[in-house]
Amino acid sequence: MTITSNRLSSIYVLDQDEALDFYVGVLGLEVATDADLGFMRWLTVRVPGDTKEILLERPGPPAHDPATAEAVRALVTKGAGGGWLGFNTDDVDGLYEKLLAQGVEITQVPTDQSYGRDFGLRDPFGNNLRIGRIPSPGA
Q: What are the angstrom distances between the C-alpha of 82 and each of 11, 12, 59, 77?
């Protein structure tokens, strides 16, 4: 038996509606699941056509007690929440220009790296994102 894929990851956000506006409205992802579980809102997004989902998770129950949730919110606010996402695009420079024009916080302009070409940005909560044209291993 072996693990065959990574289907779900999560990133902490402070406001799920604002996160939806950014990840769907600005980046162009799609909502995979938006469910009220009573004790939390299960909100996932994904790249259109992909099966891997990203949980846009608010710090709090059931994962955190109130004191821990507050500490996590403080770290996320400082950009130190540990969240990091990487996306591929077929037009690094075009997407960079589009996001720059929309006022997205850019942390690094498009740059040729040893692994491909990408740029850095932050979501509204301080989480780090990279978007680039990164070849698959062995390609």
A: 8, 8, 13, 11
